[in-house]
Amino acid sequence: MLNGGSFESCADIANKSQKDWAEKEILPQSLTELRTCLFFEQRHWRHFGAEPDNKEKEYLHAFIESIRSKLRDRENQSNRIIDSKED
């Protein structure tokens, strides 16, 4: 969980995620943690002025797809709630 959004908290979440991905190809489950990791990775690559290799791109795309899926699920859930209120 984020602790006030500090750099150290972001780094802890991102580093744990990177380790989990390398060992088991799993990502964080919360949307906040996914966004935090993607933000941290973007900063990492920008800071070093390099392009991610194919393995890193796969990791980044996994974040994007997971975020997309969570947002789609959230939207579908909201639509179901709205539809049930209209009935």
Task: Report what the structure shows.
This protein has 87 residues and is mainly alpha-helical. It has one domain (7-86). 79% of the residues lie in helices and 0% in strands. The chain is built from 3 helices and no strands. Helix 1 (7-24) packs across helix 2 (31-48). The protein is elongated.
Which secondary structure elements does this structure contain, and how are they paired or packed?
Blueprint (H helix, E strand, L loop, with lengths): L6 H18 L6 H18 L5 H33 L1
Helix pairs in contact: 1-2, 2-3
Count the domains: 1
- Residue fraction in strands: under 5%
Give the helix tally: 3
Q: Alpha-carbon distance between the termini?
A: 38 Å
From the alpha-carbon coordinates, what is the Rg to the nearest angstrom? Answer: 16 Å
- Overall pLDDT score: 88
Share of residues in helices? over 70%
Estimated structural class: mainly alpha
Q: Regions with pLDDT < 50 over 5+ consecutive residues? A: none
Largest sheet geometry: none
Tertiary shape: elongated
What is the ordering of alpha helices and beta strands?
Answer: HHH
Instruction: Tally the beta strands.
Output: 0
The gist of it:
79% of the residues lie in helices and 0% in strands. With 87 residues, the protein is an all-alpha fold. It has one domain (7-86).
